[in-house]
Amino acid sequence: MNKIAQIFQTLDYGPAPEGPEQAIAWLDSHDRKFGHFIHGEWTKPGKTFSSDNPANGQSLAQISDGTPSDVDAAVKAARAAFPLWSALSGYERGKYLYAIARAVQKHARLFAVLETLDNGKPIRESRDIDIPLVARHFYHHAGWAQHLSREFPDAVPYGVCGQIIPWNFPLLMLAWKIAPALAAGNTVVLKPAEFTSLTALLFAEICDRIGLPKGVVNIVTGEGDTGQAIVNHQDIDKIAFTGSTEVGKLIRAATAGTGKGLSLELGGKSPYIVFEDADIDSAIEGLVDAIWFNQGQVCCAGSRLLVQESIEERFIKKLKLRMNTLRLGDPMDKSIDIGAMVAPVQVARINDLMQRGVAEGALIYEPDGMALPGTGCFLRPALVTNVSPANTLVAEEIFGPVLVAMSFRTPEEAVALANNTKYGLAATIWSENINLALDIAPKIKAGVVWINGTNNFDAAVGFGGYKESGFGREGGREGMGAYLKPAWEKALKAAPVGKPVPARAANPLDASHVDQTAKMYIGGKQTRPDSAYTRPVLDPSGKLIGEVGEGNRKDIRNAVEAARASLGWSTTAAHTRAQILYFLAENLDYRRDEFAARIKAQTGEDGAEEVALSVERLFAFAGWADKYDGAVHNPPLRAVAAAMIEPLGVMGIVAPTSLPLLGSIALIAPALAMGNTVVLVPSSQSPLSLTDLYQVIETSDVPSGVINIVTGDSVTLAKTLTEHDGVDGLWFAGSAEASTMVEKASISNLKQTWTTRGLSYDLTDRRFEGDYFLGKSTQVKNVWIPYGA
Amino acid sequence: MSLRVVDNSHTETPHKRNPGFPLDLDWVERVRMNRSALERRAGSIGARRTVKKEYQLAWLLKAITLIDLTTLNADDTDGRVERLCAKARHPLRSDILEKLDIGDLSILPGAVCVYHRFVKTAVNALEGTGIPVAAVSTAFPHGLAPLETKLKEIEMSVADGAREIDIVIERGMVLRGDWQALYDQVRAFRKACGDAHMKTILGTGELATQTNIAKASLVCMMAGADFIKTSTGKEKVNADLVTSLTMIRMIRWFHEETAIQIGYKPAGGIATAGDALKYMALLKEELGTHWLQPHLFRFGASSLLTDIERQLEHGLTGHYAADYRQPMV
């Protein structure tokens, strides 16, 4: 029988290879050896390493390992290019972005083939997903560039941005970094991942060809050391990093106190929740796009399947059948679903994790008889069952084609399991019941939620995580905003250093000159300090005018417990939160003379103005509570993408020593308005204005636990608060040194921080009545809701 | 779910025919179809699976054997039907067949599909080929004649030699959710068909939602359909991959629960070889390779064959082919 007659019987697919010729020709045109792209020129290749095709282990090209002096040269080029680039009109910058988008489209096939050769992902994905999204990102941001001054008034670019990207979506992550940076007027030094530098280098050549001004985009290749040189470079104004949570924490620590802008897009262990009323076959097909997209090497991969018990057996059975029809093999073949892992080290790492999981009791299913190619980095798709949240495979990000499955009984339990992770990047929900789906979406702590779909991405819709999945967004308005900062921030001067306050009277017995010692305010009750010590409050002349409790670790612990228990505040209607803030303002105003007198007693200044401003500030944020809200985006899909504004959760707020009343009010009002609960450390020098406020709070219907106040030494308490994993955001007003401490300590759970770094933020200024603090007390969750009868 | 077989009266064929099952309304109510997700799957199948070179040629040859070569026009005549049957006897130009060098592999279409009026004509014209004649029936395309008339039409076509009957359902029953009425009528049609295989045309373009299409598919399968078929070709919306995915997933579910294999026939608007390959890939992925056989899968088409011939000629010669050089359907 001839071959056609044979195939007529078997109906096999057969090979369908994409040709590598154009990409090989491009590599050859560079003699397969690359330097860095700095100031629009290629440097001479230095010490190099090989970039290999993971599907067959063959070397594609030699890549230069960037040294600190290479990085320095790139930063100098970017710095030199910045004044002209940022001075261009938005329209002019937009035209360059548009030209890049056009060029990427024109050479889409070349980019796709090169990406697949270098990374191992199936050509279908690089061709149909990665590269089209790259072009889309540049188109979208061409528009932002032009409209920037209208949409972001009084905002300026950071300057030079250092950008470090991962190997899983090499060119797409480059686009997510470079497009908004350039639109905003920044210049860029970007380091691609060492495994996958080639498309970034091709992109550099595109920048050259379209005539992008020299130095605006600089590409320095290299390994971790090169990245470190970027992170530590003194003349870089902002770091944007996508990669592992482990490295993200190192970068947070390294940039602490430098004032560098920072956005981190890190790991995930995203839940994929299937309710019993879902379209089950579609939910299973969705899993293919969730966990077997790019071999599972996707930070937002739906890697934790949570399926309702009533359908679990049937679902798992059908899922296994579906896994059997996945096609694994040469990523250059057009009919391949699962290509190569990026490098041998990843295969080894995942095999190791799998062994640990099995030792802990996990059962692994892999499709029967799925052959692996003889060479190259391949892993079979795997389904892990018989596991609980305690299993390594459930807790750790595997970053491979491995799905772990668990069941749940009720929607509540689904939410609890979904949130039972240190990560919070994405989540997927399948249900045909809109009531159920839209009830669950806000309850999941994740930056992106897909309903009845998964792994949708678009330039107009922000992407980024909660918790240890990082902070900052890419895409959408919020992503654009991440490359801009208020113009006035650049002009901040150092704050005058206050007199050091004696923590306690030198002789403890001297401290008992006043009858009343103010207590802490925790969980709606006035409580004694755990230490049973007090600290004196002195007037400007040094005379004792009162005493407050000396807060310690345990007081902070109790306050955070109370604040966590009161998180229902975040789902209290915004109108109700507004009413309560108005009421608080009103009650404060009734007692304005008393509060003014107390300010005068502590600072010697007439306090009337500060009280009036405090009342006004409470009014301002009461007014904002029901207005600072989200948006509905228009991705190129029949879907609503709802950008929801959500509070951070529990916020630790350490107020400045100056402005005893307004210093605290100006910070807690926006946090409360947005639905956060607060643990406040008031001015360590003049805390009596806040301890006087307890009664006002109590008479203003503020639910207990929403505002908790711990008095004491602000730096000591700030450290405990920052290190507390139950605190989701921390604001600290104080010295540069203490701010650095706070930023460093924040890595325990990667909480978002805002610190004054010893600079003088004039909180009486009405610029603080608006989105500056609202933005910092919230995060954006994008919920994708496809529809169609 | 366990379903009791209610009708074992007919003779066993090698392929186990659908005997029909009691109407299970609980099952119908559990049907969930998410249109956006179906569209995503259906929309990517052509990019996920492709066949090249001799694989493509073999798949296209297979596609020919899956075609119900069809003429369903108001101006049909015996002459027109005879020409169609002549094409069915020789679907490929002999020089192309020779170049393919496939030995004694028989490449004939799945059936010839005509109105009742031309069943005899077709039966005579196809004598000795083994190609079955299919008759559209039950007041095709609208299905709104009296039940007695429709049953009679089936019986007459079977009497004239039709081995396959393509019935149409009353779309209004689906839109009203009157599953019992739909079930009863299709059940009656099935009885009238006797040994002739029954293809159930849903008129999907007029059923409004994928959920309706899925539920109607299920009810027709419970009522004993051998095939479920998308369209008459006369609706404004013809067969597409999304609707096909909905229907073949219901076929899969039905098979999971009853072990009965139901055939699938998309019809209307499938005109290119490339389209045919996408449908075949979708079937292969969702139902398995063995579903790509004439007793489980058919294309309702007429111009598709000519395009397949052109593609085969191109594959063999490397030149692009012109339609006027292929013997007319």
Question: Which properties best describe this structure?
Answer:
A: alpha/beta, Aldehyde Dehydrogenase, Chain A, domain 1, Aldehyde Dehydrogenase, Chain A, domain 2, 3 domains, ten-stranded mixed β-sheet, six-stranded mixed β-sheet, B: 329 residues, alpha/beta, eight-stranded parallel β-sheet, 13 helices, DeoC/FbaB/LacD_aldolase (chain B), lyase (chain B), DeoC (chain B), deoxyribose-phosphate aldolase activity (chain B), Aldolase_TIM (chain B)
Task: Please render the helix and strand layout as text.
The complex is a heterodimer of chains A (789) and B (329).
Chain A: H1 3-10, H2 21-29, E1 33-34, E2 37-38, E3 41-42, E4 48-52, E5 59-64, H3 68-87, H4 90-106, H5 108-119, H6 123-151, E6 155-157, E7 160-164, H7 170-184, E8 187-191, H8 198-209, E9 217-219, H9 224-232, E10 238-242, H10 245-255, E11 261-265, E12 270-274, H11 280-291, E13 302-308, H12 309-324, H13 344-359, E14 363-365, E15 382-385, H14 392-395, E16 402-408, H15 411-418, E17 423-424, E18 426-430, H16 434-440, E19 448-451, E20 466-467, E21 470-471, H17 476-481, E22 484-486, E23 517-518, E24 520-522, E25 525-527, E26 534-538, E27 544-549, H18 553-565, H19 574-590, H20 592-603, H21 608-624, E28 631-633, E29 639-647, E30 650-654, H22 662-673, E31 677-681, H23 688-691, H24 693-698, E32 707-709, H25 714-723, E33 729-732, H26 736-745, E34 752-755, H27 771-776, E35 778-786
Parallel strand pairs in A: 1-5, 7-8, 7-10, 8-9, 10-11, 12-13, 12-18, 13-16, 15-16, 18-19, 19-35, 23-27, 30-31, 30-33, 31-32, 33-34
Antiparallel strand pairs in A: 2-3, 4-5, 6-22, 11-21, 14-15, 17-20, 24-25, 26-27, 28-29, 29-35
Chain B: H1 25-29, H2 35-48, H3 53-65, E1 67-70, H4 78-89, H5 94-100, E2 111-114, H6 119-125, E3 133-136, H7 147-160, E4 164-168, H8 171-175, H9 179-193, E5 197-201, H10 210-222, E6 227-229, H11 241-258, E7 263-265, H12 273-286, E8 299-301, H13 304-317
Parallel strand pairs in B: 1-2, 1-8, 2-3, 3-4, 4-5, 5-6, 6-7
